[in-house]
Every structure is written in structure tokens, then in C-alpha cells.
């Protein structure tokens, strides 16, 4: 019943209750259930964590495995090795040289291994003294404006910032550089000196390879003397045993499923079908060709303006950056190799490193077909080095061919002369060698092991992201030339690009893999700073981006400084590229002055260097009196050197300085980033 407030009142009749109510039972069940799940979940997690270090994922390693793999000392000790050869390589040459040294170590009872400093704990160098008769060799390239290669950057910084005690470390250094660049072999020289400062013992003097001359000859000559020094230092003798031992073994992959076979990807399988940001050297972006048009007005040469579509890629670039383009070899050359060696190019194979301790399991992405390897992964157009001549000897059935290869593989004066004339001067590739020495029939898998990797090509970006945020522009001359043997050699990248013409219909647009490489070639932070740009021919490319950026700032209402451009080409009516654009920038005031030199439009040749000498007052006014910036882009061997000499002369005369003072002034400009060069050799 209810009381007057409407509240229900329980009956006063008393009944007997059970000892455990339904509520108690429910609570008990809940507690048991929670305890059950808690206990078994914890046990499962514990079990999982115990097993985790033993689980290897295909795409990544656990932190424990990475730590183990980074210890090159442990690998040396566990495999009875005493020689480690580190490489700092941007294009693969230093890595190739390192492999050749490590391989030759066997002739001196020094079992060797090749190591990428980026994948090693270089601090372990202090423990090298624990290995009897140990030796560390460094094949180091200098890259860009005196910079370490990407994979040697951490090692370089470790040497700069650390003070490790390297007493007991025996070492030697070979540098790879180019004398046409100002910072010739700067990184190798620094490493050689710094190792000594930290207490290490130099077993052999540093070798300096010059890629502008004959870096192969430099390397071979240094390597011969290196082993003499090694024998003297350790009191050992050469065994005389040849070291033509295969680094990789052939694996038949005919049964591998098609979806597991590489078809040209740089690193990750199916990466072009499933693109993932960020994009870099190992993960390029497959860009559509949006524009491909001819810039030359007449003549038998070609210069292309190409625009790569990066809309939706999340890629960002700055004015002055470079774009890397991944080329592929022509099908004609690839088919020719298959024909010469009577090989099935569509057979699927893999090359597996015979050194189980090596972090590099394959020389290129495997498994793939021979056709894929020769098309996308291997360089079949450059001049082969002497070690390839040596490896080909065993495959020559004609004694004359065999003797020729032996001669070129030797380090005798006669051998070097023959190699220089027959390979370098006559510009023979591996295809030409197989054609001209018809009895040489190497196993195709061995040839694939020997040939260097096909490298990407870098181009100065000729656009500004302020104006073209969704595309990257380049300016490229089509490379075709006739060799002394009357063969026509074609530039791998430019001839491929020339074929990639976008269509106006609904057909799929042509694509090519690219990524952006950062540069130090930058406009001044302040738009008011005056600048001088010197860029004959395609050296104009980065300055087109500079001018676009300053024009954008002007249109936004910002004050811009003087912009003076020096441009040169052969003939005004033939190869004056971007003429209309440049004249428009002059008309609207963005480009203050445009100095033009057409070398063949008059009896006496006229170059931009002549104009620079004539305009000494203007040069000094901008770089001396107004603290402006000077930029040069072009061939390192001629343009960059000549411009540098003229600038020093102008500073001397107009700044009233001695030669020494002028050189120091220009050096200071470079250090302040007021004198920048974007050059090639």
C-alpha cells in the first residue's frame, strides 16, 4: 500500500531469505570473469614479449637486431676477418672500389668485408685494436660543395664532434673527387687527417682520385702501392692466389609468383603501384609528364623544356633545388646483349650474396628478369673499369681476345695505354666490347654482378614553387654524339625524356620516377638584395626559377633588388632559350639588365666571360659596394673556373686589393653564401 506521500511501503510479513542471494551470485560471476580475462591477457602479453626478439618481419628489424647488425666489430670477430673497407658513395663508384679492395685482401691473408658507415656503429672503431693485424680502409667521395655523401654524413659528424681514442687503429684513405671543383677531395683529406689526430696509424698515404681525368688509373695505382705498404707494415707476403671469386651466387626463381618479382622498382616491391610519401632516393615518385616542348628554334640540336606533375604528391621544393630523374636503358641495347650472349632475357633470377654477414643481400632488387635488370638496374652504356676486363678473360675462347683483355686488365704502362685508348678514348661500353671481341661470352648472371648500378640523373629545377607549386620544370639538352668507332652514343636519360610526350586525349600520360634533392643554391633571404646571375646555355635553368620568384615578390608589392643576368648561346635565332620570357621580365622591371653573348653570330666568338670583363664597374658596384650576391651555373671545367678568375681580377682592380687580398675577399663571399656555384663536369 502507499502512504499519503505516495511512497510504496513494504509488507510487514516476514519471510526466510537464502544464505546467498541472486545479487551475490551475479557479483561473484563478474569478479571471476574479470579475473580470468586479466590473468590470461597478461600471460598472452608476457608470452608475446618473450617471443618478439625472435620474430623477423620482412620489412623491418627489431631494435635488438638493428643493434646487432650495426656492430661491424662483432662481424669481423665472428667470421675471422681483419679487414673492413668503408665507403662514402653518392653514385656507387666508391662502393665499387671498396668491394674490389675487400676482395683482394684474400691475396694477403686478410679476409675482408665492405661496410656502409650509415649502417654501422662507427664508435666501434676504437675496438679495432682488439683484432690482430687489423686494417680499416676508407673509400670516400666528396660531394657537392665539399660535402660528405649522404651515407657518410653521420661518420663525418662523429669525427668532427667526438674525441675518441683511436690508438691502435690502422687505416688508409682513398678519396674520390673532381679537380674542376673547388673543394677537391676535401672530405677524404679531412678524414685522413682527423683519424691521425685521434691517434690512429696511417698505414699508407692518402690516394686522391680525379674523376675529371682517369679515376680508375688513380685508384689502381694507389691500390698497388697500398698492398706494398700493408705487406711492409704487417710483415706479410702476397700469396699469389687470384681472387676471381664470385660475390653473388645465382638463384633460379622460375617458380616465384609474378606478384613477388621486381619490375623496375628502386627498393620496395610494387612501390609504383602503391605510392607512399615521403619520396626520396629509395622511394621515388612516379610523376606524369605534363609538358615536353622544344626550346631551340632551329638547328640540329635539341633542348627540351619538361614539366613534371607533382600535384597530390605532397612533394615540396625550393627555388634552386635539383630534381633526380631515374632513367632506363634503351630496349635496343638490352636486346643486343641478349642476342650477343644468346640469353633468355625473360628468365627470372636472383643474385644472393655469398657472404651471409653482409647487410647487402643483393646487388639490385631481386628477384627480377634479366631484361628488367639490364633495363632498370645496370649501367650498360658507360666505360667499364679494368676489373671487368679481368673478369671477362675466362670467357674468351679466342686467344687474341684473351690476350687483349689481359693486357687491359694489367697495370703495366702498355696495359694502361691500351685501356685508355681502346676503352676510354674510343668510348666503348660493355655492349661495344662484346661486339668487338666476339669470342667473349660471359654468363649473363656474372655480367649482371659485375656491371655498376644505373644512377639517377640530376637536373637544376628551372621553376619557382611560388609560381608553380604543382609542377617541377627542367631544361635539358638532348645528348647524342658519334664516337671514334663511328657508333652513335645516346644519353640514357635525355633520350628517354625525349620520347615521353604527353597526349591531349584520354590515354594514360607518360610517367617517370623522380625525387627532389635539396641544394644550397639559394636566393638571398631579403628580396631587396641585388644579385648577378651568370648562366650560359642550360646554365640559365635555376635562374629562370630565381627570376620567377623575384617577379612574384614584385607583383605582391614587395621591393626587389637589382637582378642582372648574363646569358650566352651560339646563335640568337637558333638556341636563345626562353627569349620571350626574359624580354618580358626586362620590360616589367623584374630583370634590371640582360647581357647577351651569341658566340657564332659574328666572325669573332663572343662569350659571357667577355661581357663580364667589359662590365667590371657594374660587377664591383653590386658585389663590392652593395654587398650583393653572385651566382654561376654551368660547366665546372670552363665556365666556373673562368668566372672565378674574372671575379678575382675585378675585386683586385676595382677594390684596390692585392691578389692575395682579392682571393680572400672572394673566399669570404663564398663562406657567406654570397658567391654560389651550381656546376657540373
TrEMBL record:
Reported cofactor(s): FMN; FAD
GO biological process: response to hormone
InterPro entries per UniProt: CysJ-like_FAD-binding (IPR003097), FAD-bd_FR_type (IPR017927), Flavdoxin-like (IPR001094), Flavodoxin/NO_synth (IPR008254), Flavoprot_Pyr_Nucl_cyt_Rdtase (IPR001709), Flavoprotein-like_sf (IPR029039), FNR_nucleotide-bd (IPR039261), NADPH_Cyt_P450_Rdtase_alpha (IPR023173)
Positions annotated to bind FAD: 457-460, 475-477, 481, 491-494, 680
Main subcellular localisation: endoplasmic reticulum
Entry GO MF terms: flavin adenine dinucleotide binding; FMN binding; NADP binding; NADPH-hemoprotein reductase activity
UniProt-annotated binding residues for FMN: 89-94, 141-144, 176-185, 211
Cofactor binding notes: Binds 1 FMN per monomer. Binds 1 FAD per monomer.
Cited Pfam families: FAD_binding_1, Flavodoxin_1, NAD_binding_1
HAMAP family: NCPR
Protein name as it appears in the record: NADPH--cytochrome P450 reductase
Organism: Rhopalosiphum padi
Amino acid at each position: 500500500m502507499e502512504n499519503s506521500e505516495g511512497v510504496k511501503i513494504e509488507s510487514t510479513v516476514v519471510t526466510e531469505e537464502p544464505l546467498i542471494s541472486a545479487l551475490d551470485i551475479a557479483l561473484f560471476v563478474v569478479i571471476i570473469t574479470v579475473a580470468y580475462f586479466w590473468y590470461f591477457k597478461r600471460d598472452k602479453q608476457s608470452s608475446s614479449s618473450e617471443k618478439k626478439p625472435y620474430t623477423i618481419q620482412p620489412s623491418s628489424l627489431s631494435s635488438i637486431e638493428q643493434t646487432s647488425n650495426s656492430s661491424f666489430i662483432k662481424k669481423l670477430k665472428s667470421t675471422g676477418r681483419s679487414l673492413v673497407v668503408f665507403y662514402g658513395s653518392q653514385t656507387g663508384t666508391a662502393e665499387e672500389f671498396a668491394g674490389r679492395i675487400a676482395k683482394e685482401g684474400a691475396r694477403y691473408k686478410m679476409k675482408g668485408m665492405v661496410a656502409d658507415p650509415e649502417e654501422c656503429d662507427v664508435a666501434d672503431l676504437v675496438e679495432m685494436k682488439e683484432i690482430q693485424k687489423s686494417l680499416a680502409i676508407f673509400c670516400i667521395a666528396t660531394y657537392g660543395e665539399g660535402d660528405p655523401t649522404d651515407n657518410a654524413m653521420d661518420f663525418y659528424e662523429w669525427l668532427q664532434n667526438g674525441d675518441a681514442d683511436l690508438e691502435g687503429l690502422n687505416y688508409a684513405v682513398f678519396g674520390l673527387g673532381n679537380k674542376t671543383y673547388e673543394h677537391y677531395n676535401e672530405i677524404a683529406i679531412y678524414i685522413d687527417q682527423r683519424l691521425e689526430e685521434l691517434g690512429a696509424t696511417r698505414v699508407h698515404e692518402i690516394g686522391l682520385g680525379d674523376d675529371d681525368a682517369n679515376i680508375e688509373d688513380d685508384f689502381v695505382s694507389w691500390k698497388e702501392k697500398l698492398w706494398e705498404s700493408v705487406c711492409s707494415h704487417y710483415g706479410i707476403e702476397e700469396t699469389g692466389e687470384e681472387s676471381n671469386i664470385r660475390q653473388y651466387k645465382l638463384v633460379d626463381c622460375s617458380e616465384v609468383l609474378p606478384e613477388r618479382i621486381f619490375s623496375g622498382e628502386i627498393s620496395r616491391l610494387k612501390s609504383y603501384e602503391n605510392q607512399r610519401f615521403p619520396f626520396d632516393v629509395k622511394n621515388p615518385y612516379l610523376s606524369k609528364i605534363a609538358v615536353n616542348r622544344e626550346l631551340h628554334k632551329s638547328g640540329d640540336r635539341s633542348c627540351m623544356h619538361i614539366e613534371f606533375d607533382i600535384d597530390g604528391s605532397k612533394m615540396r621544393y625550393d627555388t634552386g633545388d635539383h630534381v633526380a630523374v631515374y632513367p632506363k636503358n634503351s630496349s635496343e641495347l638490352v636486346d643486343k646483349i641478349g642476342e650477343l650472349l644468346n640469353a633468355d632475357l625473360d628468365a627470372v633470377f636472383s643474385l644472393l650474396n655469398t657472404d651471409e654477414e653482409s647487410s647487402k643481400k643483393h646487388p639490385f632488387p631481386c628477384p627480377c628478369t634479366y631484361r628488367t635488370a639490364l633495363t632498370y638496374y645496370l649501367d650498360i652504356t658507360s666505360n667499364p673499369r679494368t676489373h671487368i676486363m679481368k673478369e671477362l678473360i675466362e670467357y674468351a675462347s679466342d686467344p687474341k681476345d684473351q690476350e687483349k683483355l689481359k693486357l687491359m686488365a694489367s697495370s703495366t704502362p702498355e696495359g694502361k695505354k691500351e685501356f685508355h685508348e681502346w676503352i676510354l678514348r674510343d668510348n666503348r661500353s660493355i655492349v661495344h666490347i662484346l661486339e668487338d671481341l666476339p669470342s667473349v661470352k660471359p654468363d649473363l648472371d656474372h655480367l649482371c654482378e659485375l656491371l655498376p648500378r644505373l644512377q639517377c640523373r640530376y637536373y637544376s629545377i628551372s621553376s619557382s614553387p611560388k609560381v608553380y607549386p604543382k609542377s617541377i620544370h627542367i631544361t635539358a639538352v638532348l645528348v647524342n654524339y658519334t664516337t671514334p668507332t663511328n657508333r652513335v652514343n645516346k644519353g640514357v636519360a635525355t633520350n628517354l625524356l625525349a620520347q615521353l610526350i604527353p597526349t591531349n586525349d584520354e590515354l594514360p600520360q607518360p610517367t617517370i620516377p623522380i625525387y627532389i634533392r635539396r641544394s644550397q643554391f639559394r636566393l638571398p633571404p631579403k628580396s631587396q638584395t641585388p644579385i648577378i646571375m651568370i648562366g650560359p646555355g642550360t646554365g640559365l635553368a635555376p635562374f629562370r626559377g630565381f627570376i620567377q620568384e623575384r617577379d612574384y615578390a614584385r607583383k605582391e608589392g614587395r621591393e626587389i633588388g637589382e637582378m642582372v643576368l648574363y646569358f650566352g648561346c651560339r646563335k640568337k635565332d637558333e638556341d636563345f632559350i626562353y627569349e620571350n620570357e626574359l624580354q618580358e621580365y626586362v620590360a616589367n622591371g623584374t630583370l634590371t639588365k640582360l647581357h647577351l653573348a651569341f658566340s657564332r653570330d659574328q666572325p669573332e666568338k663572343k662569350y659571357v666571360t667577355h661581357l663580364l670583363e667589359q662590365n667590371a664597374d657594374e660587377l664591383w658596384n653590386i658585389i663590392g659596394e652593395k654587398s650583393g650576391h653572385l651566382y654561376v651555373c654551368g660547366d665546372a671545367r670552363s665556365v666556373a673556373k673562368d668566372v672565378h678568375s674574372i671575379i678575382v681580377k675585378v675585386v683586385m682592380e676595382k677594390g684596390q686589393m692585392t691578389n692575395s687580398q682579392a682571393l680572400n675577399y672572394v673566399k669570404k663571399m663564398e663562406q657567406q653564401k654570397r658567391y654560389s656555384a651550381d656546376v657540373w663536369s
